[in-house]
Known about the structure:
With 245 residues, the chain is α/β, with parallel strands linked by helices. It folds into 2 domains: 67 residues, CATH 2.40.240.20; 163 residues, SPOUT methyltransferase, trefoil knot domain (Alpha/beta knot, 3-Layer(aba) Sandwich). Strands 6, 7, 8, 9, 10, 11 and 12 form a 7-stranded parallel β-sheet that branches. Strands 1-3-4-5-2 form a 5-stranded mixed β-sheet. Helix 2 packs parallel to helix 3. The longest helix is centred in the middle third of the chain and has 22 residues. The chain is elongated.
Amino acid sequence: MAAKRIHIQTKIAPDAEHTLSAEQAHYIGRVLRARIGDMIELFDGQGHSASAEVLALGKREAVVLTSNVAFADDRSPVAITLLQCLSRSHKIDLVVQKAVERGVDHIVPVTSERSLMRLDEAGGAQKQAHWMKVAIAACQQCGRRFLPTITTPVPLETALREVTAERRLVATPQASEPLTAKLEQSAPKSVAILIGPEGGLSSDEIEIASNVGWMSISAGRRVMRTETAAISLLSVIQHRWGDLA
């Protein structure tokens, strides 16, 4: 059942027929390889899910009949916000996918001095829509019930000032204090972590972060790629404070 899941934006009604879009029909038929009479799972990204029988399946739409609507909160005990500096497109896609699998609640793409990707307002909106598709696909695959939020790209200094969390951490190889030192403290209700781009954060950017209350932490002796750092540190945070047993 977990492998045959599809996200819908409308409210799931019990014992009701739902007409799905051509894109969703394609996903059901070609990706999930479901057929008429098969059961799939619908979820709305807000904790609600339902079993659904495929009644009709065509190129332009699909019709399903729901049953057993249920709600479950599978979010992590610690709300995690990831500030990921923009890098090459395929790397950001990978970070979004794996951050969703690791249970991140909010993803804030950030433009920094050394970011390789530069986007205008229209390009940022297009990328946000693309990243949400990546996130939805990851939720469908991993069984997650709640979708994360993903913003349009914002300047680094704006993100540092506007993002709030009980613990705010900046990953940088220059930091003297390791992440493990922070993990020994009591579990926070929320944590935000900033990951730099391929070339890392500049000294000025690290200073700006420090001035507005962000704490620099080291991820160990080896310098990791931006996508590796995000995946690794999120896993460690979830293991110590969250739901990764």
